[in-house]
Fold this protein.
Amino acid sequence: MIPSLLILIPVIAGLASLFIQNEKAAKGWALVASLATLCLAVAGACSHRVTELQADASWLPALGSRFSLSMDGMAKMLVLLNAVALPLAIGATYKNSYEKSGSFYGLLLLMQAGMMGVFLASDALLFYFFWELALIPAYFLSSKWGGEKRIQATFKFFVYTFAGSLLMLVGILYLYFKTPEHSFAIQAFYNLHLSDSEQFFAFWLFFIAFAIKIPIFPFHTWQPDAYEQSPTVVTMLLSGVMVKMGIYAVIRWLLPVFPAAVARYDHLVILLSVIGILYASLIAIRQDDMKRLIAYSSIAHLGLMAAALFAKQQVGIQGVMIQMFNHGVNVIGLWIVADAIEKQTGTRKFSQLGGLAQKAPGLAILFVIMAFANVALPLTNAFIGEFMMFNGLFRHSIWMAAIACISIILAAVYTLGMVQKVFYGNTAPATDHSVDSSLNIKLMLAILVIIIIALGVYPQPMLQLTNDTVNAVLAKIHSI
Amino acid sequence: MPIQYYIALSVCLFCIGIVGVLTRRNVIIIFMCIELMLNSVNLLLVAFSKMYNAPAFAANPASTVGIDGQLFVFFIMVVAAAEVSVGLAIIVMMYRNTHSIDVNFLNRLKN
Amino acid sequence: MNNLVYLIPLFPLAGFLINGLFRKSLNKPLIGIIGSGAILASFVVSLVLFFQVKSNGALPVEALFSFINVHDFKIDFAFQVDQLSSIFLLIITGIGFLIHVYSTSYMHDEPTEHFGRYFAYLNLFVFSMLLLVMGANFVIMFIGWEGVGLCSYLLIGFWFKNNNYNYAAKKAFVMNRIGDLGFLLAVFWLLAKVGTVNYHDVFTAESLAKLTPTDITAITLLLFVGAAGKSAQIPLYTWLPDAMAGPTPVSALIHAATMVTAGIYMIARSNVLYSLAHVTQNVIAIIGIATALLAATIALKQNDIKKVLAYSTVSQLGYMFLGLGVGAYTGAVFHVMTHAFFKALLFLGAGSVIHAAGGEQDIRKMGGLKKYMPYTHLTFLVGCIAIAGMPPFSGFFSKDEILAAAYARSPILWGLGVLGAAMTAFYMFRLYATTFLGSFRGTHDQEHHLHESPAAMTIPLVVLAFLSVIGGAVGVPEALHGHHELHHFLSPVLTTEVAPELGHSTEYGLMAVSVVLALAALLFALNKFSKKPELGEPTGFGKVLANKWYIDELYDAVIVNPLLKFADFLKNVVEKSGIDGIVNGVGRFVQYLSRQLRLLQSGQVGNYILFMVLSIVVLFLVFWNQAIILQFLQKVF
């Protein structure tokens, strides 16, 4: 019941919002709808009754595909992230105005619905359906309301990710024809006994799709452009939630289905991820644009998640789980600040900013906490995830872990550099007349800070939430 | 007359039609060439129809073997007539717009 | 469970939250009282616990809550108060309290909001430092470890309008992070091999049996990298002198008395591991003595009052590591304690001087301050004598213990150590003579402004001076008919300590040599600089020393700049033309192809018909010759 509602509410609210003309009404409607989804997500996360957490209906009987949704620990956590992200994003940008805001917020809600579906689907065709459903509103949002080079950037974003999705579709069909009863159900995929060569082939079809989404080096170049050019609300959802679809899909669809291929290619993937971590971190150091810096920082963090996943250690995967949530929360906070600064000063260039701490002390303090969460300082939430992920990676390969660990130094360099160039020093012409941010922004950041500290001090509930999924995945991996 | 003569004639007519369509720029002539091709086909259809029909007719005057070929001919003639009316109308419109009946002026699709 | 344990970090945390959240609505006296009161409360509790530990031994470890608990991966949020940590608790909260009191006066000119921010940071620092020493496992220690790094960052860059200060803050944090990398890897190593990070579980024979000698060497070396970062040892020491950008009480608390000694605490805590790794011990001893000497030579030629003290701190930390390297764990901890007394005293004295001179830090523009600030002068002199190692001041006993242990390991180490001690005496009295003796060399305005600092600043000075004098009493060696109570007190924790086997006569000889040499250097400096201070620009080798051996420039040229160039190369060439170039290239290739194909769509009806006819002919041929073509294809493939 709950899973269906989680998808239905944003879909219906989104479709309705397309017809709202009044800007205020559209905002209010979107906020109310997203809060309703949030309540439902919390209820779902707290619920333990199987009947509440599953839904199953006939969808395409001729193809052997059913509308089946289920909500295990990992899904609960990501649904929660998805449900938290949208109200935060809308709330923090409540004072921004978008033309045709009815369509804007409608598309946002539809995007949320698509991502919900991805996290909940337990049927491959349904999964693919939602995977694309999440992409299409994102494309329209970015190409209509984005920055100057939006057409180019969103076109690249769409074509790139869509190319990956098509490979995945081929892979899904391949597996579909391998199943004895021609079914798209996830259990049927799990029960497949593929030969090694079949796995090695199909693995890449899925992997490339997910690697583009995550993104794993060298499939990452769509990301900085898309993040930079999209309207910031969309960027929040893209980097906060949508890239988690890639990690999620690896855990749900890749590791358990192709254990032999994963065992064969894990070193390669980890190597790519570790290269990507350092590569993105180094590039982030030399960025002059706040949004691009955050984008590269995000690539580095996701690279670590990918590496820890393929290390296949209990600790590491558990770390990835909690880090998916934590990274989502943290990066949304960074985007909120980036947006607030850009709206006030009209620029994102470090060379034109400076001294904002004098003008906006409240924002500065909140941002500094965000920044330290970004460098994974202990007692912030990111530390838990990174500590566990590095641990998992270390158990797999000492050298890879040691090299990946260099990123904690580089993260300090670029993040503190950003803090310094934006907030410290003397004011620049662009920041001379800034004032402290409005209350809604500070409120949203304060909520995020509370989440950051709370999960950093006491992460145990979140860790237990995903315990079942990790055990199930590991059992599948080690079953070969 | 052996069937080969009909075939040869029909092929000749058809080729003349094709060459006409390909080489001429005057729409009316192209149109006439198309008619020529249609009629070559008609000729062939009638010839084949007769070829199959003749032996059967000899055995049984009520036989309808091969009659379908001639049916097609009528269809084609009807369609051709409809086509001519529409085509000529287009040509008239074209002439009114461009004061020419040269097909090479009709390249707006290019852009 | 002893609930008092939780109270110790709770007070500073509460102080941090109150001062941080309500800094705009509170007034300055209240902020000062809350900030200092929190630390005082912690100090009182620490004192109670200290006496409990003294009479009953270490308190039992109990978990506050389960921090991370996944499958076989368990880390508890647990505190451990034993002999070692209770000593550190007293140092941190005691000296911390004095410095808080001092700060209420020193920072009085700041606007209320920043005054509140300052005390919030300071309380947060004490909280983190307490976590560091009270944690019952390496992860909790690491939490405190990074927390103090954060506070150090925030406080060095306290005056954030000045970008030089911000760079210094960032440098401190990044260099500390390099050390943290080593620490983290050591923790991972322990977790992977032993499966636990609790001190109680790691330092047992059973756990140690799971480690090969290579493991132990690697773990101890990695931990030492962490210690070198935090405690400013070669090659990671360059942040500490720059960290003097922060307010002076911060330098006293963080960069002299407490945070920088975290590395010594960590190694002393893991002495069981270190005693099994002789390679690491040798590395530590060599790096320690090298740092001590290098920093001492640099301190000889510095003219900024705080820089001299900063290099002196680096040098003294080097001595502590020398002690750790030769197995004199008690000596190192003892030196941490006495150093905390006299170095905090010296920094606070320097702060008092800077305060009086209106922010001036260059000793060439001072001189003759003796008559303007009697208390500061007297206490500063006590500090100088203590650090120079003159008996019976505290510095003598602790330094002597380390040097004696070094002699037992290798006389060369001892010789170098004595040389460093003589240099220490020399530069400290150069500083003292240039600042307090002679006549004032600043402007008239400054001279008019000179005054003794208020009581809130002088009382901590007096207390610290008193401690600097008598602090050595807890560690009087047997050779001097003492009992060395500290040694007996710490022995349950520092189980692997080996007392040097030296005869009493040898010890007397060693003491005499070091004292006489230091005294000679002291008198020479006093004599040389009280009359004719060194005011010109240094030349020749002195210039190299004044420029700190050009180590910063070397790092920039060898590490920082190449890395930045490489990053630029990645950003501008590899990313833009390489990877993104390929991605965009695919798109551009498709566009190119379609542009070529587009030419076929000429718009000429005739062309279309021609293609149609040709295609029909081709199709016709294909179907006609299907069999032939299939045969042909089969032959080819």
The radius of gyration of chain A is 21 Å. Chain A touches chain C through 52 residues (CB under 8 Å). The mean pLDDT of chain A is 90.
